[in-house]
Protein backbone atom coordinates (compact mmCIF):
# COMPACT_ATOMS: atom_id res chain seq x y z
CA UNK A 1 0.00 0.00 0.00
CA UNK A 2 1.31 3.46 -0.88
CA UNK A 3 0.91 6.36 1.52
CA UNK A 4 2.66 8.98 -0.60
CA UNK A 5 0.45 12.06 -0.91
CA UNK A 6 0.89 15.81 -1.14
CA UNK A 7 0.98 15.79 2.66
CA UNK A 8 4.35 14.02 2.82
CA UNK A 9 5.90 14.70 -0.56
CA UNK A 10 6.86 17.83 -2.48
CA UNK A 11 8.68 18.46 -5.74
CA UNK A 12 12.41 18.81 -5.14
CA UNK A 13 13.60 21.89 -7.02
CA UNK A 14 16.16 24.57 -6.09
CA UNK A 15 13.64 27.20 -7.20
CA UNK A 16 12.02 26.79 -3.76
CA UNK A 17 15.16 28.05 -2.00
CA UNK A 18 14.60 31.66 -3.06
CA UNK A 19 11.00 31.80 -1.85
CA UNK A 20 12.03 30.66 1.63
CA UNK A 21 15.01 32.99 1.95
CA UNK A 22 12.97 35.97 0.72
CA UNK A 23 10.41 35.20 3.45
CA UNK A 24 12.98 34.64 6.20
CA UNK A 25 15.55 37.32 5.25
CA UNK A 26 13.62 39.89 3.15
CA UNK A 27 15.86 42.86 4.00
CA UNK A 28 19.18 41.00 4.01
CA UNK A 29 21.59 41.65 1.13
CA UNK A 30 21.36 38.77 -1.33
CA UNK A 31 23.48 40.02 -4.26
CA UNK A 32 26.32 42.55 -4.51
CA UNK A 33 27.72 43.86 -7.80
CA UNK A 34 29.86 46.98 -7.72
CA UNK A 35 27.77 49.69 -6.12
CA UNK A 36 24.55 47.72 -6.58
CA UNK A 37 23.08 45.71 -3.73
CA UNK A 38 19.84 43.72 -3.90
CA UNK A 39 18.07 42.51 -0.78
CA UNK A 40 16.31 39.16 -0.91
CA UNK A 41 13.02 40.99 -1.42
CA UNK A 42 14.50 42.86 -4.40
CA UNK A 43 16.21 39.74 -5.74
CA UNK A 44 12.89 37.87 -5.71
CA UNK A 45 11.18 40.81 -7.44
CA UNK A 46 13.76 40.85 -10.25
CA UNK A 47 13.42 37.09 -10.70
CA UNK A 48 9.62 37.38 -10.83
CA UNK A 49 9.85 40.17 -13.44
CA UNK A 50 12.29 38.17 -15.58
CA UNK A 51 9.98 35.15 -15.43
CA UNK A 52 6.99 37.29 -16.35
CA UNK A 53 8.81 38.84 -19.31
CA UNK A 54 9.95 35.42 -20.56
CA UNK A 55 6.43 34.01 -20.27
CA UNK A 56 4.97 37.01 -22.13
CA UNK A 57 7.55 36.42 -24.87
CA UNK A 58 6.26 32.88 -25.33
CA UNK A 59 8.81 30.89 -23.31
CA UNK A 60 7.15 27.83 -21.82
CA UNK A 61 7.99 24.55 -20.12
CA UNK A 62 10.72 22.64 -21.94
CA UNK A 63 11.99 25.63 -23.94
CA UNK A 64 15.74 26.24 -23.83
CA UNK A 65 17.04 29.65 -22.74
CA UNK A 66 20.72 30.42 -23.40
CA UNK A 67 22.64 32.88 -21.23
CA UNK A 68 26.06 34.04 -22.45
CA UNK A 69 27.02 36.14 -19.48
CA UNK A 70 29.92 36.63 -17.04
CA UNK A 71 29.44 36.51 -13.27
CA UNK A 72 26.90 39.35 -13.02
CA UNK A 73 23.38 39.50 -11.45
CA UNK A 74 21.38 38.58 -14.60
CA UNK A 75 22.80 35.05 -14.74
CA UNK A 76 22.01 34.54 -11.04
CA UNK A 77 18.45 35.71 -11.68
CA UNK A 78 18.17 33.31 -14.59
CA UNK A 79 18.90 30.36 -12.29
CA UNK A 80 15.50 30.91 -10.69
CA UNK A 81 13.38 32.66 -13.33
CA UNK A 82 14.00 30.16 -16.14
CA UNK A 83 13.38 26.92 -14.20
CA UNK A 84 10.33 28.29 -12.36
CA UNK A 85 8.62 28.37 -15.78
CA UNK A 86 9.64 24.76 -16.38
CA UNK A 87 12.05 26.02 -19.05
CA UNK A 88 15.66 24.86 -19.33
CA UNK A 89 18.67 27.07 -18.60
CA UNK A 90 21.77 26.77 -20.81
CA UNK A 91 24.71 28.80 -19.47
CA UNK A 92 27.54 29.20 -21.97
CA UNK A 93 31.17 30.29 -21.72
CA UNK A 94 31.37 34.03 -22.64
CA UNK A 95 34.79 33.50 -24.28
CA UNK A 96 33.87 31.13 -27.13
CA UNK A 97 34.17 31.75 -30.88
CA UNK A 98 31.33 32.51 -33.29
CA UNK A 99 31.28 28.95 -34.63
CA UNK A 100 31.26 27.45 -31.14
CA UNK A 101 28.32 29.66 -30.18
CA UNK A 102 26.51 28.66 -33.37
CA UNK A 103 26.92 24.95 -32.62
CA UNK A 104 25.81 25.12 -28.96
CA UNK A 105 22.82 27.40 -29.57
CA UNK A 106 21.59 25.24 -32.45
CA UNK A 107 22.32 21.92 -30.74
CA UNK A 108 20.48 22.98 -27.57
CA UNK A 109 17.37 23.99 -29.59
CA UNK A 110 17.43 27.38 -27.91
CA UNK A 111 14.32 29.56 -28.16
CA UNK A 112 15.72 32.59 -26.29
CA UNK A 113 19.21 34.08 -26.19
CA UNK A 114 20.56 36.50 -23.58
CA UNK A 115 23.98 37.92 -24.48
CA UNK A 116 26.32 40.18 -22.52
CA UNK A 117 27.58 43.07 -24.63
CA UNK A 118 31.20 41.86 -24.36
CA UNK A 119 30.23 38.70 -26.27
CA UNK A 120 27.78 40.32 -28.68
CA UNK A 121 30.33 41.01 -31.43
CA UNK A 122 31.09 37.28 -31.70
CA UNK A 123 27.38 36.54 -32.16
CA UNK A 124 26.94 39.01 -35.01
CA UNK A 125 28.36 36.70 -37.73
CA UNK A 126 25.95 33.87 -36.83
CA UNK A 127 22.90 35.57 -35.34
CA UNK A 128 20.90 35.41 -38.60
CA UNK A 129 21.58 31.66 -38.89
CA UNK A 130 20.07 30.66 -35.53
CA UNK A 131 16.78 29.37 -36.85
CA UNK A 132 15.21 28.34 -33.55
CA UNK A 133 15.86 31.54 -31.61
CA UNK A 134 12.77 33.74 -31.25
CA UNK A 135 13.98 36.20 -28.61
CA UNK A 136 17.33 38.02 -28.26
CA UNK A 137 18.05 40.19 -25.21
CA UNK A 138 21.16 42.33 -24.70
CA UNK A 139 22.74 42.40 -21.24
CA UNK A 140 24.38 45.82 -21.33
CA UNK A 141 26.99 46.93 -18.82
CA UNK A 142 26.54 50.44 -20.24
CA UNK A 143 22.84 51.04 -21.02
CA UNK A 144 22.07 52.41 -24.45
CA UNK A 145 24.69 50.43 -26.34
CA UNK A 146 23.12 47.09 -27.39
CA UNK A 147 25.20 45.10 -29.86
CA UNK A 148 22.45 42.82 -31.16
CA UNK A 149 18.96 43.61 -32.39
CA UNK A 150 16.67 43.19 -29.41
CA UNK A 151 15.74 44.81 -26.09
CA UNK A 152 18.17 45.56 -23.27
CA UNK A 153 17.93 43.38 -20.19
CA UNK A 154 16.78 46.01 -17.70
CA UNK A 155 14.03 47.28 -20.01
CA UNK A 156 13.03 43.68 -20.83
CA UNK A 157 12.30 43.09 -17.13
CA UNK A 158 9.56 45.73 -17.37
CA UNK A 159 7.75 44.34 -20.41
CA UNK A 160 5.24 42.24 -18.48
CA UNK A 161 3.74 41.70 -15.04
CA UNK A 162 5.86 39.67 -12.60
CA UNK A 163 5.09 35.99 -12.12
CA UNK A 164 4.69 34.67 -8.58
CA UNK A 165 7.41 32.20 -7.66
CA UNK A 166 5.78 28.77 -7.60
CA UNK A 167 6.72 25.28 -8.68
CA UNK A 168 3.41 24.67 -10.41
CA UNK A 169 4.87 24.84 -13.93
CA UNK A 170 7.47 22.14 -13.13
CA UNK A 171 6.00 18.83 -14.32
CA UNK A 172 8.33 16.61 -12.30
CA UNK A 173 11.39 16.87 -10.09
CA UNK A 174 13.07 14.61 -12.65
CA UNK A 175 12.38 17.15 -15.42
CA UNK A 176 15.26 18.88 -17.15
CA UNK A 177 16.43 22.10 -15.41
CA UNK A 178 19.72 22.84 -17.18
CA UNK A 179 22.09 21.77 -19.96
CA UNK A 180 25.81 22.35 -19.51
CA UNK A 181 28.19 21.91 -22.42
CA UNK A 182 31.54 20.21 -21.89
CA UNK A 183 34.69 22.07 -22.86
CA UNK A 184 35.03 20.08 -26.09
CA UNK A 185 38.85 19.87 -25.89
CA UNK A 186 38.81 16.51 -27.72
CA UNK A 187 35.84 17.04 -30.07
CA UNK A 188 32.39 18.58 -30.24
CA UNK A 189 31.10 19.62 -26.80
CA UNK A 190 28.37 17.42 -25.35
CA UNK A 191 25.25 18.75 -23.63
CA UNK A 192 25.10 17.43 -20.06
CA UNK A 193 21.56 17.32 -18.68
CA UNK A 194 20.66 18.10 -15.04
CA UNK A 195 17.29 17.62 -13.33
CA UNK A 196 15.47 19.69 -10.71
CA UNK A 197 15.98 16.86 -8.22
CA UNK A 198 19.70 16.47 -8.87
CA UNK A 199 20.43 20.19 -8.58
CA UNK A 200 18.35 20.45 -5.39
CA UNK A 201 20.26 17.62 -3.73
CA UNK A 202 23.67 18.72 -4.99
CA UNK A 203 23.00 22.25 -3.72
CA UNK A 204 22.38 20.78 -0.28
CA UNK A 205 25.58 18.79 -0.70
CA UNK A 206 27.49 22.03 -1.23
CA UNK A 207 25.84 23.53 1.85
CA UNK A 208 27.06 20.58 3.93
CA UNK A 209 30.55 20.10 2.50
CA UNK A 210 31.37 23.83 2.25
CA UNK A 211 29.86 24.67 5.65
CA UNK A 212 27.61 27.40 4.23
CA UNK A 213 25.56 29.32 6.79
CA UNK A 214 23.21 32.35 6.78
CA UNK A 215 26.11 34.73 7.48
CA UNK A 216 28.27 33.42 4.62
CA UNK A 217 29.50 35.82 1.93
CA UNK A 218 30.36 33.97 -1.27
CA UNK A 219 32.63 35.53 -3.92
CA UNK A 220 32.03 34.52 -7.54
CA UNK A 221 35.59 33.72 -8.67
CA UNK A 222 34.34 30.46 -10.23
CA UNK A 223 32.64 30.88 -13.65
CA UNK A 224 28.89 30.53 -13.18
CA UNK A 225 28.59 29.08 -16.70
CA UNK A 226 30.64 26.08 -15.53
CA UNK A 227 28.28 23.40 -14.14
CA UNK A 228 25.88 26.17 -13.02
CA UNK A 229 28.66 27.35 -10.72
CA UNK A 230 28.71 23.90 -9.06
CA UNK A 231 25.14 24.70 -7.89
CA UNK A 232 26.36 27.53 -5.62
CA UNK A 233 23.78 30.03 -7.04
CA UNK A 234 21.16 27.81 -5.44
CA UNK A 235 23.22 26.66 -2.43
CA UNK A 236 24.09 30.15 -1.16
CA UNK A 237 20.47 31.22 -1.67
CA UNK A 238 19.26 28.16 0.25
CA UNK A 239 20.99 29.36 3.43
CA UNK A 240 20.22 33.04 2.91
CA UNK A 241 23.84 34.01 2.28
CA UNK A 242 25.21 36.88 0.20
CA UNK A 243 26.61 36.43 -3.31
CA UNK A 244 29.26 38.90 -4.48
CA UNK A 245 29.47 39.07 -8.28
CA UNK A 246 32.82 39.48 -10.03
CA UNK A 247 32.79 40.23 -13.74
CA UNK A 248 36.37 39.13 -14.36
CA UNK A 249 39.04 37.65 -12.15
CA UNK A 250 42.02 39.76 -11.17
CA UNK A 251 43.95 39.27 -7.93
CA UNK A 252 43.63 42.96 -7.06
CA UNK A 253 39.83 42.87 -7.36
CA UNK A 254 39.52 39.49 -5.61
CA UNK A 255 41.47 40.72 -2.59
CA UNK A 256 39.67 44.07 -2.59
CA UNK A 257 36.29 42.35 -2.43
CA UNK A 258 37.46 39.83 0.17
CA UNK A 259 38.35 42.72 2.46
CA UNK A 260 35.49 45.09 1.60
CA UNK A 261 32.63 42.59 1.66
CA UNK A 262 33.95 40.26 4.36
CA UNK A 263 34.05 37.26 2.03
CA UNK A 264 33.94 33.90 3.81
CA UNK A 265 33.82 31.46 0.88
CA UNK A 266 35.05 31.20 -2.68
CA UNK A 267 35.68 28.49 -5.24
CA UNK A 268 38.55 28.74 -7.68
CA UNK A 269 40.73 26.72 -10.01
CA UNK A 270 44.42 26.24 -9.11
CA UNK A 271 45.13 28.84 -11.83
CA UNK A 272 43.17 31.53 -9.98
CA UNK A 273 44.81 30.53 -6.70
CA UNK A 274 48.17 30.82 -8.44
CA UNK A 275 47.30 34.38 -9.49
CA UNK A 276 46.36 35.22 -5.93
CA UNK A 277 49.56 33.80 -4.45
CA UNK A 278 51.71 35.63 -7.02
CA UNK A 279 50.01 38.97 -6.37
CA UNK A 280 52.67 41.18 -4.70
CA UNK A 281 50.19 42.68 -2.21
CA UNK A 282 48.74 39.34 -1.07
CA UNK A 283 50.72 39.27 2.19
CA UNK A 284 49.26 42.61 3.22
CA UNK A 285 45.65 41.46 2.97
CA UNK A 286 43.72 41.74 6.23
CA UNK A 287 41.10 39.01 6.38
CA UNK A 288 38.08 40.12 8.40
CA UNK A 289 37.01 36.51 8.87
CA UNK A 290 38.23 32.97 8.06
CA UNK A 291 38.29 32.29 4.31
CA UNK A 292 37.20 28.87 3.06
CA UNK A 293 38.49 28.04 -0.42
CA UNK A 294 37.26 25.13 -2.53
CA UNK A 295 39.45 24.15 -5.46
CA UNK A 296 39.16 21.47 -8.13
CA UNK A 297 40.75 20.36 -11.37
CA UNK A 298 44.30 19.24 -10.73
CA UNK A 299 45.51 19.36 -7.16
CA UNK A 300 47.03 22.74 -6.31
CA UNK A 301 50.81 22.61 -6.24
CA UNK A 302 52.44 22.60 -2.78
CA UNK A 303 53.70 26.14 -3.47
CA UNK A 304 50.17 27.38 -4.20
CA UNK A 305 48.61 25.55 -1.26
CA UNK A 306 51.25 26.87 1.14
CA UNK A 307 50.92 30.39 -0.26
CA UNK A 308 47.14 30.43 0.23
CA UNK A 309 47.48 29.14 3.78
CA UNK A 310 50.01 31.90 4.53
CA UNK A 311 47.39 34.41 3.38
CA UNK A 312 45.02 32.86 5.91
CA UNK A 313 42.84 30.64 3.72
CA UNK A 314 41.83 27.06 4.39
CA UNK A 315 41.81 25.01 1.16
CA UNK A 316 39.60 22.00 0.54
CA UNK A 317 40.21 19.89 -2.56
CA UNK A 318 37.20 18.50 -4.45
CA UNK A 319 36.96 16.31 -7.53
CA UNK A 320 34.33 15.87 -10.20
CA UNK A 321 33.27 16.46 -13.77
CA UNK A 322 30.58 18.38 -15.65
CA UNK A 323 28.57 15.14 -15.76
CA UNK A 324 28.44 15.21 -11.94
CA UNK A 325 27.38 18.87 -11.42
CA UNK A 326 31.04 19.58 -10.75
CA UNK A 327 32.30 18.16 -7.43
CA UNK A 328 31.46 14.57 -6.52
CA UNK A 329 34.03 13.98 -3.80
CA UNK A 330 35.96 15.99 -1.24
CA UNK A 331 39.16 15.37 0.64
CA UNK A 332 37.38 15.46 3.98
CA UNK A 333 39.65 16.69 6.76
CA UNK A 334 40.60 14.24 9.54
CA UNK A 335 41.57 15.60 12.95
CA UNK A 336 44.39 13.05 13.22
CA UNK A 337 46.20 14.82 10.35
CA UNK A 338 47.07 17.64 12.75
CA UNK A 339 49.85 15.42 14.08
CA UNK A 340 51.47 15.00 10.66
CA UNK A 341 54.38 17.04 9.35
CA UNK A 342 53.53 19.68 6.68
CA UNK A 343 54.65 17.52 3.74
CA UNK A 344 52.42 14.64 4.80
CA UNK A 345 49.50 16.99 5.41
CA UNK A 346 49.90 18.32 1.86
CA UNK A 347 50.04 14.75 0.56
CA UNK A 348 46.85 13.79 2.39
CA UNK A 349 44.99 16.95 1.30
CA UNK A 350 45.93 16.46 -2.36
CA UNK A 351 43.84 13.29 -2.64
CA UNK A 352 40.42 13.33 -4.28
CA UNK A 353 38.90 11.83 -1.16
CA UNK A 354 35.44 10.50 -0.42
CA UNK A 355 31.97 11.11 -1.92
CA UNK A 356 29.88 14.11 -0.90
CA UNK A 357 27.20 13.31 1.68
CA UNK A 358 24.59 13.60 -1.10
CA UNK A 359 26.68 11.81 -3.75
CA UNK A 360 27.03 8.52 -1.81
CA UNK A 361 28.72 6.21 -4.33
CA UNK A 362 32.28 6.25 -5.67
CA UNK A 363 34.49 3.28 -6.48
CA UNK A 364 37.67 2.32 -8.29
CA UNK A 365 37.14 -0.78 -10.41
CA UNK A 366 38.64 -3.00 -13.04
CA UNK A 367 36.83 -1.53 -16.08
CA UNK A 368 36.41 -4.98 -17.67
CA UNK A 369 35.00 -6.90 -14.69
CA UNK A 370 33.65 -3.87 -12.75
CA UNK A 371 35.08 -5.44 -9.58
CA UNK A 372 36.61 -3.05 -7.01
CA UNK A 373 40.39 -2.94 -6.86
CA UNK A 374 42.11 -3.64 -3.50
CA UNK A 375 42.32 -0.66 -1.15
CA UNK A 376 46.10 -0.77 -1.07
CA UNK A 377 46.98 2.59 -2.58
CA UNK A 378 48.71 0.82 -5.47
CA UNK A 379 46.19 -1.12 -7.57
CA UNK A 380 44.95 1.10 -10.40
CA UNK A 381 41.44 1.01 -11.80
CA UNK A 382 38.86 3.36 -13.30
CA UNK A 383 37.02 5.78 -11.04
CA UNK A 384 33.27 5.26 -11.38
CA UNK A 385 30.30 6.90 -9.67
CA UNK A 386 26.59 6.52 -9.01
CA UNK A 387 24.33 8.81 -7.08
CA UNK A 388 21.97 11.74 -6.91
CA UNK A 389 24.29 14.16 -8.71
CA UNK A 390 25.00 12.09 -11.81
CA UNK A 391 23.64 13.68 -14.99
CA UNK A 392 20.47 12.51 -16.71
CA UNK A 393 22.55 11.91 -19.84
CA UNK A 394 23.89 13.72 -22.88
CA UNK A 395 21.36 15.81 -24.79
CA UNK A 396 20.42 14.17 -28.09
CA UNK A 397 23.24 11.59 -27.79
CA UNK A 398 21.94 8.22 -26.62
CA UNK A 399 25.05 6.37 -27.78
CA UNK A 400 27.42 8.49 -25.69
CA UNK A 401 25.03 8.27 -22.73
CA UNK A 402 24.90 4.50 -22.93
CA UNK A 403 28.67 4.27 -23.11
CA UNK A 404 29.11 6.57 -20.10
CA UNK A 405 26.58 4.55 -18.03
CA UNK A 406 27.72 1.05 -18.98
CA UNK A 407 27.56 -1.47 -16.15
CA UNK A 408 25.25 0.73 -14.09
CA UNK A 409 27.93 3.30 -13.20
CA UNK A 410 29.11 6.59 -14.64
CA UNK A 411 32.58 6.05 -16.12
CA UNK A 412 34.82 9.04 -15.43
CA UNK A 413 37.71 8.03 -17.67
CA UNK A 414 40.04 8.77 -14.74
CA UNK A 415 42.36 6.12 -13.33
CA UNK A 416 42.89 5.99 -9.61
CA UNK A 417 43.74 4.02 -6.50
CA UNK A 418 42.00 3.53 -3.16
CA UNK A 419 44.07 4.00 -0.03
CA UNK A 420 43.53 1.80 3.05
CA UNK A 421 41.54 4.61 4.69
CA UNK A 422 39.07 4.56 1.76
CA UNK A 423 40.22 7.84 0.20
CA UNK A 424 40.48 7.82 -3.58
CA UNK A 425 43.46 9.35 -5.37
CA UNK A 426 43.58 9.97 -9.11
CA UNK A 427 46.57 8.37 -10.83
CA UNK A 428 45.83 9.78 -14.28
CA UNK A 429 43.30 10.24 -17.03
CA UNK A 430 43.15 7.15 -19.22
CA UNK A 431 44.19 9.35 -22.16
CA UNK A 432 47.16 10.68 -20.19
CA UNK A 433 48.81 7.34 -19.38
CA UNK A 434 52.14 7.15 -21.23
CA UNK A 435 52.91 3.83 -22.91
CA UNK A 436 56.69 3.80 -22.90
CA UNK A 437 57.92 0.49 -24.28
CA UNK A 438 56.48 -2.21 -22.03
CA UNK A 439 55.79 0.23 -19.20
CA UNK A 440 52.69 2.25 -18.35
CA UNK A 441 53.82 5.57 -16.88
CA UNK A 442 51.51 7.87 -14.92
CA UNK A 443 51.99 11.50 -15.93
CA UNK A 444 50.63 12.59 -12.54
CA UNK A 445 53.28 10.60 -10.66
CA UNK A 446 56.00 12.49 -12.50
CA UNK A 447 54.17 15.79 -11.99
CA UNK A 448 53.95 15.15 -8.24
CA UNK A 449 57.74 14.71 -8.07
CA UNK A 450 58.48 17.78 -10.20
CA UNK A 451 56.17 19.87 -8.00
CA UNK A 452 58.54 19.13 -5.10
CA UNK A 453 61.37 21.01 -6.84
CA UNK A 454 61.77 24.37 -5.08
CA UNK A 455 61.87 26.34 -8.36
CA UNK A 456 58.71 24.85 -9.91
CA UNK A 457 55.36 26.60 -9.80
CA UNK A 458 53.30 24.57 -12.30
CA UNK A 459 53.86 21.51 -14.46
CA UNK A 460 52.13 19.32 -17.04
CA UNK A 461 53.56 16.02 -18.27
CA UNK A 462 52.38 14.46 -21.53
CA UNK A 463 53.45 11.72 -23.93
CA UNK A 464 55.74 12.59 -26.80
CA UNK A 465 56.59 10.26 -29.70
CA UNK A 466 59.84 8.29 -29.51
CA UNK A 467 61.34 6.11 -32.31
CA UNK A 468 62.44 3.42 -29.85
CA UNK A 469 59.88 3.31 -27.02
CA UNK A 470 56.87 4.63 -28.92
CA UNK A 471 56.13 7.23 -26.25
CA UNK A 472 58.18 9.00 -23.59
CA UNK A 473 57.19 11.53 -20.93
CA UNK A 474 57.83 15.21 -21.61
CA UNK A 475 57.38 17.94 -19.00
CA UNK A 476 56.18 21.50 -19.55
CA UNK A 477 57.18 23.61 -16.55
CA UNK A 478 56.26 27.07 -15.28
CA UNK A 479 58.93 28.37 -12.93
CA UNK A 480 58.60 30.55 -9.86
CA UNK A 481 59.45 34.17 -10.43
CA UNK A 482 63.24 34.65 -10.54
CA UNK A 483 64.06 30.92 -10.79
CA UNK A 484 66.31 29.71 -13.62
CA UNK A 485 67.19 26.01 -13.33
CA UNK A 486 68.41 24.00 -16.31
CA UNK A 487 66.19 21.31 -17.81
CA UNK A 488 68.77 18.67 -16.82
CA UNK A 489 68.46 19.78 -13.19
CA UNK A 490 64.72 19.04 -13.19
CA UNK A 491 65.31 15.61 -14.76
CA UNK A 492 68.06 14.72 -12.28
CA UNK A 493 65.80 15.85 -9.41
CA UNK A 494 63.12 13.40 -10.55
CA UNK A 495 65.61 10.52 -10.84
CA UNK A 496 66.86 11.15 -7.30
CA UNK A 497 63.46 11.67 -5.68
CA UNK A 498 61.13 9.11 -7.23
CA UNK A 499 60.68 5.39 -6.82
CA UNK A 500 61.84 3.66 -9.96
CA UNK A 501 63.61 6.81 -11.16
CA UNK A 502 60.47 8.07 -12.93
CA UNK A 503 61.49 11.16 -14.86
CA UNK A 504 60.65 13.03 -18.06
CA UNK A 505 62.93 12.51 -21.04
CA UNK A 506 62.88 16.25 -21.67
CA UNK A 507 61.74 19.46 -20.02
CA UNK A 508 60.46 22.65 -21.65
CA UNK A 509 59.98 25.90 -19.74
CA UNK A 510 56.83 27.48 -21.15
CA UNK A 511 53.27 28.55 -20.47
CA UNK A 512 50.68 25.78 -20.18
CA UNK A 513 47.39 25.99 -22.15
CA UNK A 514 44.20 25.96 -20.08
CA UNK A 515 40.45 26.11 -20.56
CA UNK A 516 38.41 29.09 -19.35
CA UNK A 517 37.84 27.19 -16.09
CA UNK A 518 41.56 26.68 -15.48
CA UNK A 519 41.80 23.06 -16.57
CA UNK A 520 45.10 22.16 -18.27
CA UNK A 521 44.53 21.09 -21.89
CA UNK A 522 46.94 18.20 -22.15
CA UNK A 523 45.48 17.18 -25.51
CA UNK A 524 46.83 20.40 -27.00
CA UNK A 525 50.31 19.66 -25.68
CA UNK A 526 50.16 16.05 -26.92
CA UNK A 527 49.00 17.12 -30.36
CA UNK A 528 51.79 19.66 -30.52
CA UNK A 529 54.34 16.94 -29.76
CA UNK A 530 52.88 14.51 -32.28
CA UNK A 531 53.00 17.20 -34.93
CA UNK A 532 56.69 17.81 -34.21
CA UNK A 533 57.36 14.08 -34.35
CA UNK A 534 59.89 13.89 -31.52
CA UNK A 535 59.95 13.79 -27.76
CA UNK A 536 63.35 15.41 -27.60
CA UNK A 537 64.22 19.07 -27.76
CA UNK A 538 66.62 19.77 -30.58
From TrEMBL:
UniProt keyword list: Fatty acid metabolism, Ligase, Lipid metabolism
InterPro entries reported for this sequence: AMP-bd_C (IPR025110), AMP-bd_C_sf (IPR045851), AMP-binding_CS (IPR020845), AMP-dep_synth/lig_dom (IPR000873), ANL_N_sf (IPR042099)
Domain AMP-dependent synthetase/ligase, first and last residues per copy: 19-395
Domain AMP-binding enzyme C-terminal: 445-519
Domain of life: Bacteria
BP-aspect Gene Ontology terms: fatty acid metabolic process
Pfam family for this entry, one: AMP-binding_C
GO molecular function: ligase activity
Keyword Ligase belongs to the record: yes
PANTHER family per record: ACYL-ACTIVATING ENZYME, BUTANOATE--COA LIGASE AAE1-RELATED
Protein family membership: Belongs to the ATP-dependent AMP-binding enzyme family.
Name by which UniProt lists this protein: Fatty-acyl-CoA synthase
Organism: Desulforhopalus singaporensis
